[in-house]
């Protein structure tokens, strides 16, 4: 399984259930990486999308603790185990965890690759991605050239979980 996020310099990912910044090339990267794949997200992430609707051309799995929650076009699960059971027949490279913060925390142990758009700026954030730089299990295996969007600079980073020794 893979995980994908855009994070600021302090690993902030959102505030008030919204992204910290919308960078067109990051949105394009997200679309290209997840198109045709299965995405796993929390209810709040789904509800942050336009019209609170599932993303097109993807299998949408939504994790929520609300037993009565339904949304057309998405599969609803109530535990990590239930989500993992739904995707156990899929190739792990075709499954992405897309957030939010608590869902990232819960699924990170099942992921082997993390695609992080790392923004060289600090925003006021109320949700965060786990700090992979401080986690000895992860290493950066690729880093794009510096990208810019107006006065922001950022990089597309790939983190890979280190093999167990």
Description:
The protein is an alpha/beta fold. It has one domain (2-161): 3-Layer(aba) Sandwich (Dihydrofolate Reductase, subunit A), CATH 3.40.430.10. 19% of the residues lie in helices and 36% in strands. The protein has 4 helices and 12 strands; from the N terminus they run E-E-E-H-E-H-E-E-H-E-H-E-E-E-E-E. 32% of the residues are buried.
Q: Uncertain segments of ≥5 residues (pLDDT<50)? A: none
The class by helix and strand makeup works out as alpha/beta
Q: What does the largest sheet look like?
A: 9 strands, mixed
Provide mean pLDDT, rounded. Answer: 96
Count helical runs: 4
**CATH class, anyone?**
Alpha Beta
CATH architectural category: 3-Layer(aba) Sandwich
Distance between the termini: 21 Å
Shape: globular
The CATH superfamily label reads: Dihydrofolate Reductase, subunit A
Query: Strand portion, in percent?
Result: 35-45%
Radius of gyration: 15 Å
CATH topology group: Dihydrofolate Reductase, subunit A
How many distinct folded domains? Answer: 1
Helix percent band: 10-25%
> Could you give the order of the helices and strands?
EEEHEHEEHEHEEEEE
Strand segment count = 12
């Amino acid at each position: 399984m893979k995980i994908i996020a855009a994070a600021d310099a302090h690993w902030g990912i959102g505030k008030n259930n919204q992204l910290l910044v919308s960078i067109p090339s990051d949105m394009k990267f997200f679309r290209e990486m997840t198109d045709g794949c299965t995405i796993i997200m929390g209810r709040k992430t789904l509800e942050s999308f336009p019209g609170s609707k599932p993303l097109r051309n993807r299998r949408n799995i939504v994790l929520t603790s609300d037993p009565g929650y339904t949304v057309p076009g998405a599969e609803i699960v109530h535990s990590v185990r239930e989500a993992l059971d739904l995707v156990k027949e899929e190739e792990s490279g075709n499954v992405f965890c897309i957030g939010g913060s608590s869902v990232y925390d819960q699924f990170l142990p099942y992921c082997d690759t993390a695609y992080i758009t790392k923004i060289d700026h600090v925003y006021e954030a109320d949700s965060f991605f786990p700090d992979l730089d401080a986690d000895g299990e992860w290493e950066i295996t690729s880093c794009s050239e510096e990208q810019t969007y107006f006065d922001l600079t950022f990089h597309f980073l790939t983190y890979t979980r280190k093999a167990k020794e």
